[in-house]
Design goal:
The protein is α+β, with helices and mostly antiparallel strands. It is 52% helix and 15% strand.
Length: 392
């Protein structure tokens, strides 16, 4: 099935989506099953993504990126996830950090990081979640205490972060931490440090996972890690929570696009199988129970994509977009969960077999429900924004 047509993309952006689609068809789908089952890091595919310019999509041309629209970014993400969701994850957090540095970084931070991030020469990730808490970011315990060393002023960073994608391969980690633990409200005491690996920065373990294989998800321990003052994003303390909330609007659109990609892969495999598989003398799609299921699957995929593109357009228009991004992430991830389950039903016994890809889609789908803020958190965001916009 060809890449979806979205009218608002210009010719160059359509070409980027098309090239990504073709690369996924020829280079990713033939190898994804074996790499995923062996939990092998996809080094060659990551290198190819660098050559395709995937790591520079969210970075302005002035710093060597392509600076595409968020809609184009979302559709590229969808194509990658359609081939193997882990590849979309490998560029997701990287792109959020690149966007954070672009929006809030000092000139020195932009000059130092963005050109290298654009080519993939340097890789980025973000460290938000902690073992004692997930979506409640104001309750984080990781602290950064100001210090004065021979090399100049800086911070001593102590704490534990978990579920960090790309932790072993990232050159810079955007760490959400408390620079003022006594601040009221707590959000006013939160900052972001751009931490590079070094003494006191330990990737302690890789976390075993249901799906999302190949790309590492790790626990990071900061124990007396010394971070220079110029690593403070934007060179102003207490802005990290606001900065990260802006970044997460972009991140939630990316997660929604991942969900669309996985659901679309499940739909396409099911449509193919339903035409090849025959029972009672006819292709199974002709049986109403199967045909209606496929119709519902396709409707969910298209609706999820439209919500995702709408959120992308809202973000590009410069508006606050947590309502739109939250709706897209909520609906797309729930749709993905349903569509992948339905794909197993369409495939019958083969849907339970590791020789078919639908079992992988089913294992990957739950990540989008809990990642980048659980769906119950999205519902909280949505209702608050609805009341703000439609206050009686």
């Amino acid at each position: 099935m060809a890449a979806p047509e979205i009218a608002d993309l210009d010719a160059d952006e359509r070409a980027i989506v098309s090239v990504t689609h073709d690369w996924v068809e020829t280079s990713v789908r033939p190898v994804a099953r074996d790499l995923e089952h062996s939990n092998t890091y996809p080094a060659e595919l990551i290198e190819a993504m660098k050559q395709l310019g995937v790591y520079g999509l969210a970075i302005p041309p002035a710093y060597g990126g392509s600076g595409v629209s968020t809609a184009c970014f979302a559709l590229v993400t969808e194509e990658l996830a359609r081939g193997w969701m882990s590849l979309a994850g490998a560029m997701g957090g990287h792109s959020v950090v690149a966007r954070l540095i672009t929006a809030y970084g000092t000139d020195a931070q932009k000059q130092s990081w963005l050109p290298r991030l654009a080519t993939g020469q340097a890789r980025a990730t973000m460290a938000l979640t902690e073992p004692g808490g997930g979506s409640d970011l104001q309750a984080i315990q990781t602290q950064a205490i100001q210090t004065q060393a021979a090399a100049g002023p800086g911070y001593r960073l102590d704490g534990v972060k978990t579920w960090i994608t790309n932790a072993r391969t990232a050159d810079v980690t955007a760490v959400l931490c408390k620079t003022d633990p006594e601040a009221v409200p707590a959000s006013h005491g939160i900052s972001i440090l751009l931490a590079e690996q070094g003494p006191g920065f330990t990737v302690s373990r890789d976390l075993p996972k249901l799906g999302y294989k190949g790309v590492e998800s790790c626990e990071i321990v900061f124990d007396g890690y010394q971070c220079p003052r110029d690593a403070l994003l934007g060179d102003e303390e207490g802005q990290g929570f606001r900065q990260m909330m802006g970044g997460l609007e972009f991140g939630r659109i990316q997660v929604a696009a991942r969900a669309v990609g996985v659901a679309r892969a499940a739909l396409e495999d099911s449509l193919r199988y339903a035409q090849q598989r025959e029972t009672f003398g006819q292709p199974i799609w002709r049986h109403q129970a199967v045909g209606h299921r496929l119709a519902d699957m396709a409707t969910r995929v298209d609706a999820a994509r439209l919500l995702t593109v709408r959120a992308a357009a809202s973000l590009d228009a410069g508006r606050r977009s947590d309502l739109e991004a939250g709706m897209a992430k909520l609906f797309a991830s729930e749709a993905c969960l349903q569509v992948t389950a339905d794909a197993i039903k369409v495939h019958g016994g083969y849907g339970f077999s590791a020789e078919f890809d639908v079992e992988r889609y089913y294992r990957d789908a739950p990540l989008m429900v809990v990642g980048e803020g659980t769906n119950d958190i999205q519902r909280n965001v949505i209702i608050r924004q609805l009341i703000d916009r439609y206050r009686a």
